[in-house]
Amino acid sequence: MTVLLSGRRGGTTHREVALLASLPPDLRLIGGLAVMVRVGTPHRTTVDLDTVARHLDLHHVALSRMALTAEAGGQYTFVGDLDLDVIDVAPVSATELAGQLVAGGEPVSDLELNALAHTWAHDTATPLDIIAVDEANGEVLATADDRLVATTTGIVVMKASTIPLRASSRPEKRASDLYDLGRLLVAGDLQHPNFAALPTILLEPIAERLAAWFIEDAGRDRTYREVRRFDEPRLDLDATADAVDEILSIQR
Fold first, then answer.
1. Alpha-carbon distance 112 to 236, whole Å?
2. I want to staple 185 with a disulfide (CB 3.0 to 4.6 A). Which of 104, 215, 224, 243 is the partner?
3. What is the distance between the alpha carbons of residues 190 and 184, in angstroms, rounded to a whole number?
4. pLDDT confidence of residue 178
5. Of 13, 118, 12, which is closest to residue 4 (Cα–Cα)?
């Protein structure tokens, strides 16, 4: 499958796709550019690349040679002020990790849920050809072929598990995550069988959080106040609530 992203020559989208093409192929794209790819229509701009990988240490040397700076924790800076964050996921599969958490017999913490969500997104990523084209004349600016990108479901579970971990000092990140969630649920070609395939230990809390943010009156009002700063395109909260209701039907 091929996805076209329009932008200006030398602009952020052009440079991000060019950088993505140069990265190790086993890195799986998440974050803002992945949302843009999965939504397939205009979305808020991003200024960096976010990826997940298993065994980051195997890629660190190659990435360090390419980057201008390489910091501990999987953070790299490239020419043009582009940042790359690489999250190292669990060394075992998401299915095995879910089994371990269930076998532990203890309530799953927000951090454990977040780790499981990122591992699930890593394991279920699918390949796409991503092409940046000039918004003025359609000329191809950069191509990243056969790149693994988190599915819509994978991005949704990651964001829904990350929002509760956002520090209160960064309300703008919570707002952008909620906006991304809504856009993915409405316009991200959500595959409901993918949600049905989630481990129960992941599906149940994610469904509850989505309902609290987009269906329940108090949470929906707060979500509206937070995401209204993003007006291009404006988030349709009614359509988002309908999409969440379908997810809740899977849980039932």
1. 31
2. 243
3. 7
4. 93
5. 13
Angle, vertex CA 174, rays to CA 11 and CA 130, nearest 5 = 35
- Whether 160 contacts 55, CB under 8 Å: no
Distance of CA 78 to the CA centre of its chain: 21
Q: Which domain holds residue 202?
A: 2-251
CA–CA distance, 101 with 194 (Å, rounded to integer): 21
- Could you tell me which of 9, 135, 23 has the C-alpha nearest to residue 78? 23
Q: What's the one-letter identity of residue 21?
A: A
Q: Which two tokens stand for residue 68?
A: 């201008």
Summarised one tens digit per residue, pLDDT across range 172-197 is 888 889 999 999 999 888 878 888 89
The reported pTM is 0.92
Phi, psi of 54 (to 5 degrees): -100, 130
Angle at the Cα of 37 (from 36 to 43), degrees rounded to 5?
20
Beta-carbon contacts of residue 57 (< 8 Å; ≥ 6 apart): none
DSSP letter string, the chain: -EEEEEE-TTSHHHHHHHHHHHS-TT-EEEHHHHHHHHH-S-----SEEEEEESSTHHHHHHHHHHSSEEETTTEEEETTTEEEEEEE--SS-HHHHHHHHHHH-SPPPHHHHHHHHHHHHHHT-EEEEEEEEETTT--EEEEEEEEEE--HHHHHHHHHHHGGGS-TT-HHHHHHHHHHHHHHHHHS---HHHHHTS-HHHHHHHHHHHHHHHTSHHHHHHHHHHHTT-BTTBP-HHHHHHHHHHHHHHH-
Strand partners, 7: 134
Distance of CA 113 to the CA centre of its chain: 15
Reported as a single tens digit per residue, the pLDDT across 76-108 is 999 888 899 999 999 999 999 999 999 988 889
